[in-house]
Structure formats: C-alpha cells, structure tokens
Design brief:
7-stranded parallel beta sheet; NAD(P)-dependent dehydrogenase (Short-subunit alcohol dehydrogenase family); SDR_fam; disordered N terminus; 9 strands; 7 helices; alpha/beta; Rossmann fold
C-alpha cells in the first residue's frame, strides 16, 4: 500500500511510454513523486504524463550513452536529485533458438535489455553518489525468464539472467553510498508484449504445444514496484517474483 511522501521524491522511469513502465510512472505521479519519463516515442510519453506538473518528458534511446546522460542531467537540473530509478526499458527480441538467431538480432536485444540497463544504472549511481544526502534506490525490471526460459527466447532469456547479476553487483557496490538495488520478476501481466508471444491466444510451451495462459492486470504489477520504491531507507527489497495465478512457471514444461 502506498504511503504519502514526507519529501517530494524524484524518480526516473525508462520505457514509460507503454506497458509496465507507463503504469508505474502513473502510479508514482499519483503517489506524489516527481517523475522523469523516458522512452523513444515522445507522443506516448506525453500521454503517460497526462499533463501532470510533476512529470518531465525526456525522449531517450537507452542504447545511446549521450541520451542516457542527458536524461539524468535533465532530471537533476529540474529537481536537484534522483531518488529512484525504475530500470524498465526492454524488448522481447526474436523468436529463435541459439542455432538460428542472427548476430544482428542478438546484439540488438542485448543493446537494449542489458547495455541500456547498465548505462541507466551507471548514470543513476553517479547522480546518487554526488547528491546530498547521498543515496537512492534502483529497481531493475527482470522477468520470469530470469528464472525459467520460454522456448525460442535465447537472447531475451540471456539478458534477463544477466540482469540478476547486474542487480546483485549494484547492490553490493552501492552499500557504502546508501544506494540499494532490487529486481522485480513479473510473469504474464497484461501488456503488449504478452500479445507478441501469444499468451492470450496460445503461447508456445516446452513440449511444443500451445496454451492460453492466465494474465493479471498491469496495475497490480505496478503496485509491487511502488511497494519496493516506498520502502524506508533502512530496508531493501532484493528480489520480488509476481506472476499470474496459475501460469506455467513453477514446474514449467
């Protein structure tokens, strides 16, 4: 359950133009945060912001270091500090096995999901180290695929396993600076990416069959992110797994 903020906290949300990022940004704004919304499509970011005076729309491609630096500098100049990063921007990548994926598609998936996440985390950590008081919180959006892959998702699955390593490394290296880092792994929340892999019409299973899988509202996933963000500075949520009830995750295959 969200709580009123004693101090107006500042959050950066990447991938805020759609899906989980959009809903997290809206819930943060409703909870009293000042929110910098980042994504490649300015019109969708403006739609997410809904004209809120506490929003800042910053078009950004997370694979471009200059864009990422501009995002965090713009937010810092506007509001003076960065308290929370929801490191959310990502793509599902191609449907392919390791013997089928092209190097171009592999590199494109890693560029967004892994390198982009690293660049945003690095910029956030630099800002959090430099500000007074020092510190902040990073929440990485992983995936159920950080635990168990779907068939023919080699690039996506590798990036999400790597995200877990990034999360743990940031948490360790941030200890001396009051910076915490946790990861939320979400399974089958109702967003556009679920349409891409056919969850509502028949998603490919490990045995080669297709199965319609349950989904849950994106607002509920966003509430879990907000819970992590609103923990007191004395606590850190390192890992959260939230799935649609009854989805094939435990015992997948």
């Amino acid at each position: 359950m969200s709580t009123p903020q004693q101090v107006r906290r500042v959050a950066v949300v990447t991938g805020a133009g759609s899906g989980i990022g959009r809903e997290v940004a809206r819930q943060m704004l409703a909870d009293g945060y000042r929110v910098a919304l980042a994504g490649r499509r300015e019109a969708q970011l403006k739609e997410t912001a809904g004209g809120s005076p506490d929003s800042l729309v910053v078009p950004c491609d997370v694979t471009r270091p200059g864009d990422v630096e501009r995002l965090f500098e713009t937010a810092r100049q506007q509001w003076g500090r960065i308290d929370v990063l929801f490191n959310n921007a990502g793509v599902f990548g191609p449907a392919a096995g390791v013997d089928e994926i092209s190097l171009e598609d592999w590199n494109a998936t890693l560029a967004v999901n892994l390198t982009g996440s690293m660049l945003c985390a690095a910029a956030a950590v630099r800002a959090m180290k430099a500000q007074e008081p020092q510190g902040g919180r990073i929440i990485n959006n992983g995936s159920i695929s950080a635990h168990s892959p779907r068939p023919r998702t080699v690039a996506y699955t590798v990036t999400k396993h790597a995200m877990t390593g990034l999360t743990k490394s940031i948490e360790l290296d941030g200890r001396g600076y009051g910076i915490t880092c946790g990861q939320i792994d979400i399974g089958n929340t109702a967003t556009e990416i679920m349409d891409t892999i056919g969850v509502g019409s028949g998603a490919l299973q490990a045995d080669g069959s297709r199965r319609i899988e349950p989904m849950f509202p994106v607002a509920d996933a966003a509430r879990a992110v907000l819970m992590m963000a609103n923990m007191p500075d004395s606590a850190s949520v390192g890992s959260v797994v939230v799935t649609a009830a009854g989805m094939p995750f435990i015992g997948r295959g």
